[in-house]
Amino acid sequence: MKTRAITGLFFLIVMLASLLTGHYPFGAFYLLLALFCQYEFYGLIKKAGYFPNIYTGMFNGAFIYTVFALLAFHRTSPAAMFLIPVPLSFIFILELYKKTSTPFQNIAFTFLGLVFTIMPFTFFHAMAYMGTEFNFHIPLGFFVMLWSNDTGAYLTGRAFGRMKLFERHSPKKTVEGFVGGVLISGLAGYILSIYYPELHWSQWITMAVLISCFGTLGDLVESMFKRSINVKDSGGILPGHGGVLDRFDGLLIAAPIVYSYLYFVTN
Fold this sequence. Notes:
Keywords: Cell membrane, Lipid biosynthesis, Lipid metabolism, Membrane, Nucleotidyltransferase, Phospholipid biosynthesis, Phospholipid metabolism, Transferase, Transmembrane, Transmembrane helix. The chain is an all-alpha fold.
């Protein structure tokens, strides 16, 4: 428990520093997190018996994230997106030189790593640029509500949990815990609206509901992957917490949904 607390506190400080020190540290830090998640996800796929092109996939992940990050703070032309298929083509080309009987699966799983881990982080990064300039309020609020949901769900489920939410993939999650998580996250959203009024309180609370619902689904999806290969953690880089993918699985489905919601309500 002590190791878990120390790791969590250190990681929290680093995350807050990346948010508060400007767009370059912010972009670089979440690129690293995205690549760690991608690497761990490919590790899970290898344990399932397939062989994604890990390093070509990660190079493409870094390239795609960087292109969208530069677009977000207006450092490149939208035409740069037309460069993305160039490195992607090497995923197919390099498969020619691998002695494997599963090229379809290897290529498909390499692309799945990009879609499941890299793209959600590009959406999360873009939340800091919903206005004309970098603003850390929405990304910070996203994590506050995500963590509030996790904490609320854990405490409520432990105290009142009876009905299983999705026992096949996560036996400990309960309906009561899920409802408690949504309520605590909604309360956090309302408090955030007081300090960060660029979004209306109803928009913050809507974000909280979306984060709670789709963050829980992200957690369940990762649990599904891990249970299919009898693995508890995606990695061990965070002592007491498992892997980076284990800590950010809630972001993977929630971030694209929340960004899409904000895009339409702020435009």
